[in-house]
From TrEMBL:
It comes from Cyphellophora europaea (strain CBS 101466) (Phialophora europaea). Residues 72-218 form the EXPERA domain. It is a multi-pass membrane protein. It is found in: Membrane. GO terms for biological process: sterol biosynthetic process. GO terms for cellular component: endoplasmic reticulum; membrane. Belongs to the EBP family. The chain crosses the membrane at residues 43-63, 75-95, 127-151, 199-226. The keyword Transmembrane applies. One of its GO terms (molecular function) is C-8 sterol isomerase activity. Its main location: membrane. It comes from the Eukaryota. Keywords: Isomerase, Lipid biosynthesis, Lipid metabolism, Membrane, Steroid biosynthesis, Steroid metabolism, Sterol biosynthesis, Sterol metabolism, Transmembrane, Transmembrane helix. The lineage of its organism: Eukaryota, Fungi, Dikarya, Ascomycota, Pezizomycotina. This is EXPERA domain-containing protein.
């Protein structure tokens, strides 16, 4: 009987424990994990309410300090306000709390735990995710706020910087998709829960926005820059053909009287 008790005790001790969290794969360790005490609807309503005053103030300031700014440019400005806030504050929160985010119960902490149902790497201090988010905070966040200033002041530097920022958004998003996909199909590790909702809405949909919008803005800037360069070329050719500019072999170009 003692032998049977020992064997049964060893069997219970060596059996896999039930996961203490709802994430995939169940074997990952999340130290001191605390489940969310707010449901998804509550989190989304609270998070959405933050943006109403932010967008309102940004629109008012753009209209007040640059009345000639077109409505489309104001909408684009709001997009970069969104990007700047998310990169610096929301993703910055993740970077600063990644080691213990599983136990955080404030709004940002619970939002990250909700999103992690589609990508559990956010709760395990994954090296790629942590590095990518850190660069997003430092580089993409800073460029986003710079874009807000450039659009608001109609700066000529707007489109060169917009090209750089949009390429950064598209590249980082594609890399994010690629690493998760390779983990699943190359290493056999799926970081997303099996429900289709978490994959298509959270993982795919929420990130795909940062491919669609930056791609559109990238094309906008490319066309604007190309149009400006084409206009300069036509102007130079016109002035040259009309004889307004002649080459002086003894010095720089001079203007004929």
């Amino acid at each position: 009987m003692d032998l049977l008790r020992k064997l049964s005790g060893q069997s219970a001790a060596t059996s896999d424990p039930l996961p203490s969290h709802p994430y995939s794969p169940p074997s990952i360790a999340i130290p001191n994990f605390v489940p969310n005490d707010k449901d998804t609807a509550e989190l989304l309503i609270s998070f959405s309410a933050i943006w109403i005053p932010i967008f309102g103030v940004a629109w008012w300031m753009a209209s007040r300090y640059n009345p000639s700014l077109k409505s489309l440019d104001k909408i684009i400005l709001l997009w970069f306000v969104l990007c700047g806030c998310l990169h610096v504050f929301f993703e910055g929160y993740f970077v600063s709390t990644h080691s213990h985010i599983g136990q955080m119960q404030d709004l940002f902490g619970q939002l990250w735990k909700e999103y992690a149902r589609s990508d559990s790497r956010y709760l395990t201090s994954d090296i790629f995710v942590l590095s990518a988010e850190g660069m997003s905070v430092a580089i993409l966040g800073g460029l986003s706020w710079l874009m807000v200033y450039f659009i608001g002041t109609s700066s000529p530097y707007r489109h060169p910087v917009q090209i750089m920022l949009c390429m950064g958004h598209v590249y980082s998003d594609l890399l994010y998709y690629a690493t998760a996909t390779l983990d699943q199909y190359w290493r056999g590790v799926n970081h997303c829960r099996p429900e289709a909702y978490y994959f298509w809405v959270y993982f795919f949909g929420m990130n795909f926005i940062w491919i669609v919008v930056p791609t559109l803005l990238l094309f906008q800037s490319v066309f604007v820059v190309a149009k400006a360069l084409s206009a300069l070329d036509r102007m130079a050719q016109s002035m040259h053909s009309n004889g307004h500019i002649s080459k002086n072999p003894l010095g720089p170009s001079s203007v004929k009287p």
